[in-house]
Fold this sequence. Notes:
By secondary structure, the chain is α/β, with parallel strands linked by helices. It has helices at residues 28-37, 57-63, 127-136, 150-155, 157-164, 174-181, 186-194, 235-250, 255-272, 279-282, 286-300, and strands spanning 3-6, 10-16, 19-26, 43-50, 66-74, 80-86, 93-99, 119-122, 143-147, 169-173, 200-204, 210-214, 217-221.
Amino acid sequence: xxxxxxGSIAIDRIETPFGKSDNSIGGAAxxxxxxASYLTSKVNxxxxxxxxxxxxxxxxxxxHGINTEGVQIKKxxxxxxxxxxxxxxxxxxxxxxxxxxxxxxxxxxxxxxxxDCSYLLLGNMAPQLQQKVIQRLKxxxxxxxxxxxNFWIDTALEDLLKTxxxxxxxxxxxxEARQLSQEYSLVKAAKKIMSLGPKFLIxxxxxxxxxxxxxxxxxxxPALPLEDVFDPTGAGDTFAGGFIGYLANTNDNSFxxxxxxxxxxxxxxxxxxxxxxxxxxxxxxxxDIKDRVQEFIDLVQFDISII
Length: 307
Ligand code: AMP
């Protein structure tokens, strides 16, 4: 099944306690598409870049089989730029700069060749833009998933609530879930958020894993305990890309299959944090992914008899 990914394509400056990286390719769509490309074959991207976007990076996405026909190039403008700095615990970060540039007046155009997509992942961006993408598809995809962030909860809540009514899956972190629902308990938060539209809710908890909610069912996936975490940038998007890529490949949206998708998303995210930017996502082998998924299985498997 083909997958459409819409989101930011960025030039990032990243600072972690382990070093700095300038001019790293980034953006939600970049991480999502790269991650999904290992799990499904038809990945299409809609986004926008400016004249400063390094010339060899679009071919790099194409080399992963990613269709970039829907990436607009604005020759007189600068690309979306983000500068993030991580604190010593690597769990929290500060956005030192967010320059929207080409993203400010972004008008997502969906090429005809993308119109038959069955899966849609709307990366973190203005909720109004996310709505526009859904409205511009001639046929509603089989599954629509979206990400968002506290910035949109603060500044565009009304639009965000409209978008939530149009999607099947929402992926957010625990802090955002609490902010959106005004509930501390994540179980209560999930119930409230699902009543706003999405039938499935993923709550990411960083190095503490992720929760999947659907009706009265809950699934928990751990994050792999890693020896070295160099840069968490893009981990959430990589997780979402692995999740939707697995679903697009298997074409099965049952709760049971979503659990498998969450494990694949978690495995992909565990690679992402091992190097700066999307570096580790560029040269993965299928056997690396299989081994990583097996590590997840081993991590949580135990024999028990209830006495
Ligand atoms: P994540 O670490 O998964 O939250 O994603 C980090 C990526 O999101 C970086 O590559 C940034 O370029 C991108 N990003 C940061 N802020 C925004 C924003 N406000 N809108 C869209 N993309 C963003």
